[in-house]
């Protein structure tokens, strides 16, 4: 009986130690980090796009955490400087991601600022990158015989739009692209921010 209670106490101590080292201390360290200078809060359109990013599972294939040169050649890949805690000050929850089936997207807004490219790429990635394994998102678009006033028509590379029809971006597609364009952490960070 005595050794059982010792085991139990030992297990509790270990659990408490692990929880404080892995949860409590990191939380206290980064809970109140200020945004890096040059960061703007997301607009409501960008926030709705962020919801699309989450619900369409983009983060299962894309990270948002360029790493330091000592860890990975991310800067050479054109993904930007290593991110710091303040770069995520407006992200709740952050979308760091764990998989890199596709490129890191924390600076995609700076790397690819074209709305038309993003819309077309979401409609059909293979129209832009032959052999791409990224899924297409056709339900974010409407195929119409003719564009109506106010429609955002996607100008796809030759031969990718259904014959005689136009591809129109839904508000969801436009919001998602606004969010992608807001992903830009290329500003330099001051030493005390890193
Ligand atoms: C199954 C994995 C997968 C999923 C899910 C996925 N992607 Fe991708 N993505 C890729 C791959 C692979 C590439 C590189 C080839 C290409 O550009 O199509 C890529 C490329 C991209 C690029 C261009 C990056 C660059 O540096 O040129 C953007 C932007 C992008 N994806 C956005 C998204 C968004 C937004 C979603 C969710 C709606 C998404 N992806 C979902 C795999 C994925």
Automatic annotation (TrEMBL):
Name recorded for this polypeptide: Cytochrome-c oxidase
Transmembrane stretches, start-end: 7-28
Entries under Gene3D superfamilies matching the protein: Cytochrome c-like domain
Cytoplasm recorded as keyword: no
Keyword Zinc-finger part of the UniProt annotation: no
One GO MF term: electron transfer activity
UniProt keyword list: Heme, Iron, Membrane, Metal-binding, Transmembrane, Transmembrane helix
Pfam family, one: FixO
Classification lineage: Bacteria, Pseudomonadati, Pseudomonadota, Gammaproteobacteria, Steroidobacterales
Alphabetized InterPro entries for the sequence: Cyt_c-like_dom (IPR009056), Cyt_c-like_dom_sf (IPR036909), Cyt_c_oxidase_monohaem-su/FixO (IPR003468)
Source organism (scientific name): Steroidobacter agaridevorans
């Amino acid at each position: 009986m005595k050794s059982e209670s010792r085991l139990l106490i030992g297990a509790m101590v270990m659990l408490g130690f692990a929880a404080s080292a892995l949860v409590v201390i990191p939380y206290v360290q980064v809970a109140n980090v200020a945004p890096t200078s040059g960061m703007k809060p997301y607009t409501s359109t960008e926030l709705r796009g962020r919801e699309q990013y989450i619900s369409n599972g983009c983060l299962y294939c894309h990270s948002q955490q360029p790493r330091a040169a000592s860890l990975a050649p991310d800067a050479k890949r054109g993904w930007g400087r290593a991110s710091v805690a303040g770069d995520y000050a407006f992200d709740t929850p952050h979308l760091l991601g764990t998989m890199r089936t596709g490129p890191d997207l924390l600076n995609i807004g700076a790397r690819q600022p074209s709305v038309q490219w993003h819309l077309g790429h979401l409609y059909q990635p293979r129209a832009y990158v032959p052999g791409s394994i990224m899924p297409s998102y056709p339900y974010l678009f409407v195929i119409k015989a003719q564009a109506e006033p106010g429609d955002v028509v996607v100008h796809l590379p030759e031969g990718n739009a259904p014959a005689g029809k136009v591809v129109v971006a839904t508000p969801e597609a436009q919001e998602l692209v606004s969010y992608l364009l807001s992903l830009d952490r290329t500003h330099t960070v001051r030493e005390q921010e890193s």
